Amino acid sequence: MSRILIVEDEESIADLEKDYLELSDFEVDIETDGKAGLKAALQGNYDLFILDLMLPDVDGFEICREIRAVKDVPILMVSAKKDDIDKIRGLGLGADDYITKPFSPSELVARVKAHLTRYERLIGTGAPKNEVIEIRGLKIDKTAHRVFVNGEEVQFTTKEFDLLTFLAEHPDRVFSKEELFRRIWNMESVGDIATVTVHIKKIREKIEFDSSKPQYIETIWGVGYRFKA
Ligand code: CA
Predict the structure, then answer these.
(1) Domains of the chain, start order
(2) What is the pLDDT of residues 132-172, one digit of tens each?
C-alpha cells in the first residue's frame, strides 16, 4: 500500500483529500503546519507528498526543496493562487505536479495514481537506478557524475568529484593527504601533496555553508581529513 503525506493547514481540505485517497486504498497522514510537515517528510517513509504552498512556519516551497534534496518520490504542490503556481513552476523546485485550489478530490486521486504509477515504473522495471550517495543536504550521483547541494546542482571537476566521492564513501575515517593523493591521483606519492589541500578547499567552497566551519569534511590537524557521517 502506498503511503502519502499531506501537508495542509486547512484541516477541512486535508480531511477531504485524505477521505478520497483512503477510498482508493492509500495510507494517508496529515500534518497541518510546515515545521511538523517537513520533519515528517524527511523522517517518514512516504511514496508521495501533497504540499500546500502557504503554510505556517515553513512554506511548501522550502519543504519541496528539502524533500527533493534527498528523495526522488513524486511531489504535488497545491495552491489557492494560480500566480503562485506559475511562480513555483518557474523556480524549478522539482515538484512533479501543480494543482490550483479548488480542485475536485477525484481529480487529485487521479493525479496521485498517475504519478505513483509513473514513478513505480521508473524505479521498478526500467533502467537501473543511479548509484546515489545522500548525506544530509548533499547528494552525489555516481552514475551521472553530478553533485547537488540542497537540491541545487554544483559543478565539480573530475578530481574534485573523485575526492569528494571517495571521502563520502568512507565516512568517519581519517585519511592522510598522502593516502588521498595516492588513491585519487593514482600515483605513488611522489607528486605534490599540496594538490590535495587545494582540492579540499575547492570542494568545501562548493558544498559547505561556511568553509571555515565545515559540516562535511573535517580537518584532523596533523593527520588529514575525515568525512562526517
Ligand atoms: Ca494554506
Answers:
(1) 3-125 (3.40.50.2300), 132-227 (1.10.10.10)
(2) 999 988 999 988 899 999 999 999 999 999 999 999 999 99
